[in-house]
Amino acid sequence: MKVLILDTPDAVSARAAGLIASHVRDKPDTVLGLATGGTMETVYDRVIALHRAGEVSFAGVTSFNLDEYVGLPGDHPRSYRHYMDRKLFDHIDIDPARAHLPRGDAPDPEAVARAYENAITAAGGIDLQLLGLGANGHIGFNEPTSSLTSITRLKTLARSTRDANSRFFPDGETPPRLAITMGVGTIMQAREVLLVATGEAKAQAVAQVVEGAVSARWPGSILQMHRHATLVLDRAAAGRLELYDYLMDVHPE
Ligand code: F6R
Fold first, then answer.
1. 42 CB near ligand 1 (under 6 Å)
2. How many domains does the chain have?
3. Which atom of ligand 1 is nearest to the CA of 67?
4. Tens of pLDDT along 205-242?
């Protein structure tokens, strides 16, 4: 694991966007795994800025998002499809036909999950998977006790996750109980993984992911077993790492 600790959330977003852009420049037909959530909003702002500056084109890229709420159609303002369209896809030159999310409102979500996993395989697998981190250690919507070899499937969201995400449902609705999510095993198949976490609310999860035992209690801890995982953290998210000084010393910028 490469753990980079930067001063501010802004610096984290800029670094993450820079890493994504340089990956796409090196391999223009990259298959990207994408994430949603609050942390990614500023990452995507930076990605869009790089695209507008002519520094990166997504014309050859295929993408697969991690997850989608079950029951929400793509045009629902709280769906992740809607999030991705508004916050990224509408502002870059990715081919919309190659920007994939599971369909949350399909009549048979389990069939959608199976087909999604197959589509990732058919695309040649994910080259670079972007991840946020839940305060409970989830990656994608793989909540604690998720099988560490799981593939794309339906998961029931933890109460704490639904509470955390209720900030995106300001109109009195509550987040759905179920989501379709890539599995931990799906994520581990990605050739490279980039996890981004900021803020003190993530500090315990970060400490468990980086320094704790590999365990389904903290699903992100499986990244210790990944050959090419980079974590980009701000000081607050890194604040509970015992190895903080060591990590600052090995990667001073
Ligand atoms: C989103 C996702 C989640 C989030 C995580 C962090 O597609 O898969 O794992 O990345 O819940 O969310 P924020 O950034 O809102 O704290």
1. no
2. 1
3. 7
4. 999 999 999 999 999 999 999 999 999 999 999 999 99
